[in-house]
């Protein structure tokens, strides 16, 4: 992918925007971009630099993302809506072409890394509530004030706030090494070379942590690590796939496990598709496991497996909804029963939370009462983010 039209190759200490930003280490990557931690010499703070692949289709999607991010940032002057902020954007010319670059506020680790860090045990319920509040605040803002659908909400796209720019960062110091700021060090000097070497070593270590595979621990499970005293503030990121409610581009949206039933069946989707992904994400925070992980084995597809898993947990899909989508005929007969998967093993959410995930009866009942309405098969019956924010569950508190 590092060729004409593809990614821009970055090395530690490369500069951007006429020397304003200095690359520190790679933070992550997606299909379209690489994201680097960069030092902003003008504000003397860290930023995230998202560098898009250069081919025209990637440039076009970067411009769309910039348009969305600008609307998001302009509509939130007090920075209180739990969505990432765009600082500026520019074009960078490299050997592979012209790359659109987005300068974003630097945030911390994503929530999936938090779940991994906690050894897939599920987070403490009070922390789950805090994260849910932030995500709902962000969704309410996107939906109600901007008419935007995120379309790819999931733990990877929810980032903890980093306090690296201000003082000590509890998460950073536990999970990834803190960087020193290379201020006032002339390029090419012996001191700068030493800093570069150190940063490279740390970057390598950070990459090693990131590449730890998602999946079970085969040996005896270690107890979850202590996350005490860590404030769970977070923000929604990745607006590359976001769309305006009135101007959708894709029929198939969302990452598989977080995909709403109306998207699978190709009925129409709207803001409520984000709400479905939100409920799947909240479940994963509380249990450490994905709510639906369809596999699609011999004889039936991932879509059919997915629909079956949904019904096993949430009950039979109402016939009108089951047969109402443009793809319904592929999966359902005219009675609204799955064509190829006939025997379903029903297990309601509260029972699953107790039996499989060992939540207390009270925690399980309360969480299920919060989540089940959001997982209504009828999209228009799901509560909005604004309505969810009023739910008493968010303000309950378990004794610590
Ligand atoms: P893509 O659209 O290519 O998927 P994302 O916007 O999701 O790109 O970014 C890819 C990864 O880069 C994220 O999963 C995250 O690890 C990291 N990242 C993105 N934005 C930030 C940010 N503002 N602060 C810190 N890390 C970020
Ligand atoms: Mg992404």
Automatic annotation (TrEMBL):
Keyword Transferase carried by entry: yes
Keyword match ATP-binding:
yes
Cross-referenced PROSITE patterns, in alphabetical order? PROTEIN_KINASE_ATP, PROTEIN_KINASE_DOM, PROTEIN_KINASE_ST
Out of the domains of life, which is the source?
A: Eukaryota
Q: What Pfam families does the database record attribute to this sequence?
A: Pkinase
Q: What InterPro entries is this protein classified in?
A: Kinase-like_dom_sf (IPR011009), Prot_kinase_dom (IPR000719), Protein_kinase_ATP_BS (IPR017441), Ser/Thr_kinase_AS (IPR008271), SRPK (IPR051334)
> What are the binding positions for ATP in this chain?
50
Q: Which SUPFAM superfamilies match?
A: Protein kinase-like (PK-like)
| Enzymatic class | transferase
**What's one GO BP annotation on this UniProt entry?**
spliceosomal complex assembly
EC no.? Answer: 2.7.11.1
- Gene3D superfamilies per UniProt: Phosphorylase Kinase, domain 1 (3.30.200.20), Transferase(Phosphotransferase) domain 1 (1.10.510.10)
Q: Where is the Protein kinase domain?
A: 21-394
- Swiss-Prot/TrEMBL catalytic activity: L-threonyl-[protein] + ATP = O-phospho-L-threonyl-[protein] + ADP + H(+); L-seryl-[protein] + ATP = O-phospho-L-seryl-[protein] + ADP + H(+)
One MF term in the entry's GO annotations: ATP binding
Keywords of the record? ATP-binding, Kinase, Nucleotide-binding, Serine/threonine-protein kinase, Transferase
The family assignment reads: Belongs to the protein kinase superfamily.
PANTHER family xref list: OS09G0552300 PROTEIN (PTHR47634:SF5), PROTEIN KINASE DOMAIN-CONTAINING PROTEIN-RELATED (PTHR47634)
Q: Which protein is depicted? A: non-specific serine/threonine protein kinase
């Amino acid at each position: 992918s590092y060729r004409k039209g593809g990614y821009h190759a970055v090395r530690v200490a490369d500069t951007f925007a006429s020397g304003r930003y200095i690359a520190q280490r790679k933070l992550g990557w997606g299909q379209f971009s690489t994201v680097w931690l960069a030092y902003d010499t003008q504000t003397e703070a860290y930023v995230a630099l998202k560098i898009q692949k250069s081919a025209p289709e990637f440039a076009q999607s970067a411009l769309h993302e910039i348009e969305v991010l600008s609307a998001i940032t302009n509509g939130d002057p007090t920075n209180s809506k739990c969505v990432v902020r765009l600082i500026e954007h520019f074009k960078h010319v490299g050997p592979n072409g012209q790359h659109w670059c987005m300068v974003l506020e630097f945030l911390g680790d994503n929530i999936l890394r938090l779940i991994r860090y906690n050894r897939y045990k599920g987070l403490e319920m009070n922390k789950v509530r805090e994260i849910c509040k932030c995500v709902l605040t962000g969704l309410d803002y996107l939906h109600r004030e901007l008419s935007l659908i995120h379309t790819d909400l999931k733990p990877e796209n929810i980032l903890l706030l980093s306090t690296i720019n201000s003082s000590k960062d509890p998460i950073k110091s536990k999970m990834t090494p803190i960087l020193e700021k290379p201020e006032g060090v002339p390029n090419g000097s012996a001191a700068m070379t030493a800093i570069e070497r150190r940063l490279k070593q740390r970057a390598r270590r950070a990459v090693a942590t990131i590449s730890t595979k998602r999946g079970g621990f085969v040996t005896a499970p270690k107890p979850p690590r202590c996350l005490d005293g860590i404030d769970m503030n977070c923000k929604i990121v990745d607006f590359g796939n976001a769309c305006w409610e009135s101007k959708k581009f894709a029929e198939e949206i969302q990452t598989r496990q977080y995909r709403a039933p109306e998207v699978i069946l190709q009925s129409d989707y709207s803001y409520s598709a984000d709400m479905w992904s939100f409920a799947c994400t909240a479940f994963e925070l509380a249990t450490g496991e994905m709510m639906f992980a369809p596999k699609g084995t011999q004889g039936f597809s991932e879509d059919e497996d997915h629909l079956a898993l949904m019904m096993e947990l949430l009950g039979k899909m109402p016939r009108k909804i089951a047969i109402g989508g443009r793809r319904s005929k592929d999966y359902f007969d005219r009675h609204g029963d799955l064509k190829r998967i006939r025997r379903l093993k029903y297990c309601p959410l509260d029972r699953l939370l107790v039996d499989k995930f060992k939540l207390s009866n009270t925690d399980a009942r309360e969480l299920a009462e919060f989540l089940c309405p959001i997982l209504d098969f009828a999209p228009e019956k799901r509560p909005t983010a604004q309505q969810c924010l009023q739910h008493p569950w968010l303000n309950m508190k378990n004794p610590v």
